[in-house]
Amino acid sequence: MPDTTFDPGIKAARLEPQAYEENFSDLHPALGGHEAMVAADRCYFCHDAPCITACPTDIDIPLFIRQIATGTPDAAAKTILSQNIMGGMCARVCPTEQLCEQACVRELAEGKPVLIGQLQRYATDHLQAQGIHPFVRAEATGKRVAVVGAGPAGLSAAHRLAMLGHDVVVYDTRAKAGGLNEYGIATYKTPDGFAQGEVDWLLKIGGITIETGRALGPDLTLETLKAEFDAVFLGMGLGGVNALGVEGEDKDGVLDAVDFIAELRQASDVAQVPIGRDVVVIGGGMTAVDAAVQAKLLGALNVTLVYRRGRDRMNASPFEQDLAASKGVRIVTHASPKAVHGNGAVREIEFDYVGEDMTPSGQTLRLPADQVFKAIGQTLEGDGLPTIERGKIVVDANGRTSVQGIWAGGDCASGGDDLTVTAVAEGRDAAMDIHLILSGSV
Amino acid sequence: MADLTTDFLGIKSPNPFWLASAPPTDKEYNVRRAYEAGWGGVVWKTLGMEGPPVVNVNGPRYGVIHGADRRVLGLNNIELITDRDLQTNLDEITRVKADYPDRALIVSIMVPCEEQAWKDILPLVEATGADGIELNFGCPHGMSERGMGAAVGQVPEYIEMVTRWCKQYYSKPVIVKLTPNITDVRLPAAAARRGGADAVSLINTINSVISVNLDTMSPEPSIDGKGSHGGYCGPAVKPIALSMVSEIARAPATAGLPISGIGGVTTWRDAAEFITLGCGNVQVCTAAMTYGFKVVQEMISGLSEWMDEKGHTSIQDFMGAAVPNTTDWQYLNLNYVAKASINQDDCISCGRCFAACEDTSHQAIAMSDDRTFSVIEEECVACNLCVEVCPIEDCITMVPMDAGSTDPRTGKVVEKDYANWTMHPNNPAATAAE
Hints:
The complex is a heterodimer.
Chain A: E1 10-11, H1 17-23, H2 33-41, H3 50-54, H4 61-69, H5 73-83, H6 87-93, H7 100-103, H8 105-110, H9 116-128, E2 144-148, H10 152-163, E3 167-172, H11 180-183, H12 194-202, E4 208-212, H13 222-228, E5 231-234, E6 240-241, E7 254-256, H14 257-266, E8 275-276, E9 278-282, H15 286-297, E10 302-306, H16 318-326, E11 330-332, E12 335-341, E13 348-354, E14 360-368, E15 371-374, E16 378-379, E17 388-389, E18 392-393, E19 406-408, H17 420-438
Parallel strand pairs in A: 2-3, 2-5, 3-4, 5-19, 7-15, 9-10, 9-15, 10-11
Antiparallel strand pairs in A: 1-8, 6-16, 12-13, 13-14, 17-18
Helix pairs in contact in A: 2-4, 2-9, 4-5, 4-9, 5-9, 6-9, 10-17, 14-15, 15-16
Chain B: E1 6-8, E2 11-13, E3 17-19, H1 28-37, E4 41-47, E5 62-66, E6 72-77, H2 86-99, E7 104-109, H3 115-126, E8 132-136, H4 150-153, H5 156-169, E9 174-177, H6 186-194, E10 199-202, E11 206-208, E12 211-213, E13 218-220, E14 230-233, H7 238-250, E15 259-262, H8 268-276, E16 279-284, H9 286-291, H10 295-310, E17 338-342, H11 352-360, E18 365-367, E19 373-375, H12 385-389, E20 396-400, H13 428-433
Parallel strand pairs in B: 3-4, 3-16, 4-7, 7-8, 8-9, 9-10, 10-15, 15-16
Antiparallel strand pairs in B: 1-2, 5-6, 6-14, 11-14, 12-13, 17-20, 18-19
């Protein structure tokens, strides 16, 4: 055990070096060939299968599993990717236990669904490991489309548009493409540079130019994009972070969870990422769990995830909640932040215990904290955007915004449930609609 | 506990489970292990005539059809009869029989269709003390090219002739093992009976090409890029074996001839089914080759438990019990009307019944928006396909309609009385007879 293990404060290298590799390796190791065959054998090839209905991208799951079972994993991958170009990432990060696997009839029959997510990964990995890109571009249309945001929605739209023969320029404010796949997902869900590898693989379709370091703003206005391109797709996600709105929030050590997650993802050596001995994460979504679990994996001794409502209201799936608990994260519910205490840097954080209607009960909770990670939601940033309601760009079923010629999808747009897979579906569907408009079909 | 002992042709064994003449019974080492594991009897792998033994290929001998999770459903082989020296086999048989007097030990034999060949080998076998012989007229591969095995079993006259020699030169029971590679199994069985056979055993393996290697374009198992048909066995052949056994049990010329049932016996239930169709015991190979000799313990315990449940105290109690119910299609009751019924509590909404019925049968299952599947009795012909494709056993059942009720499909009242095709007005023969 290193000397630093029990030290208070924010320190790197709290664990033995080999512990980091173990902690941040694949959460679900890839299925081997034999495991995949055994898992695939369990699929009943249902009629009009419930798993397809449950998949936001409508992947023909029974077909791709049968293709695996009959020894053609590359055909399986093509079945997946033709519906969901980021099928590899979705296989890793989808809450399958709430989507396809929850709908699996074997979940009903035996409480053990077919391992759809892991089989999807088996197939897509098999294809992508060979560097094969199975799609080709249609004849050039001469049309140009701007995509803002190189996350799941933007890249999905870009790929589909490129495949249909349009030329696409993707703008992203970050240094790398990938969006939340690259910056916003726990390291153990997508290790070994998978996210970047997937982007590189996706771009093999051709016809897509990525311009990083460019966000909507004075240097890149929507008006300019509208003028220079035949269509615009907005998929820039939610760039802002909600504030706690309590006294002491500005103290050192009070950080945004998304920045912590991004720092970890970009770290060349996670052992060098400093972490508090006592860490408190505020929030109830996937970001909160990703931050809490990773704080624990970095060697924080005490990690508490505090949520103001009950567990049933948490956006993090039951699987994610259980994962956090299994890693030693303490989950406290019905506690709302009241004040951050400390002299310059945070030392403690105080909560009100609250009822379901957020009324303080009079009881409070004080937790020691070297670090506080805020994960209470993100907000849309930017001026001059199409009509916004409840913090999101209003879109119709085809992804059309209030402005003609501008579509939107992913987390920045209304509808959906802030999942990678939903963003991919919205990007794809908006691309199909853009294509219809550009080709004069409607 | 039920008494599993059998007396087959006067040969006693503690249970009806014998190992068939095959690789598992090729030598003393295996046979001793089999007896220790609990097998009631063994048919020693086929002996050939004295002289240089046959040789086997030095490449793969087996190929398999796999089911889910690589379960062995069908096995084919191109192995020949024993490739060990005759005297070695005889010495081992003598020793083993002496050490296991309570177990059945039968010697399988295949020598050329010449009287002298049989006259030579039979006294040698008799001297071992083995309980009987089984004439291998069945192997469809290799030896058949040399005029033996299935080549004999396909000519009833040869069967009768060789059987007669055996009864002449051998004093103990003679079992004739039949090949299924013929058009009507009753003819070779009758020939065996005419020749004096004490019993028949069937089926031997079926001509088969198990698969083709799509890289090398060679049938499997492939020997240096070439394949040859082999003999097919395992669970997949059980229905063929049951049918052939039932034909022999029913035919006047062969009824009552003792039968040793062979073909895909994998569980106690398979064995019980063979016995109900008239078999005095069963022989097993593929199940042992797949799971090892221990599998007999399940067969023993399962058969025993079932017999206790049914009140059968001995094998004789239910032997042949299904033979009277095995009939020709023309005698099936056309007034029997059933309808599929889906138990909604058991249904997991996979929709396989719907796909099967809608695409390939009678459009007799309805599917609602919430994936509730229900039978449309106006269309249901009770074909049973939905029952068989449903992954949940007994979720869909066939429910007979009561006499006097109206079949919504035909609009006709279900008759109480039995009526078959021979009596049906649509049958020209029935009309002509009136």
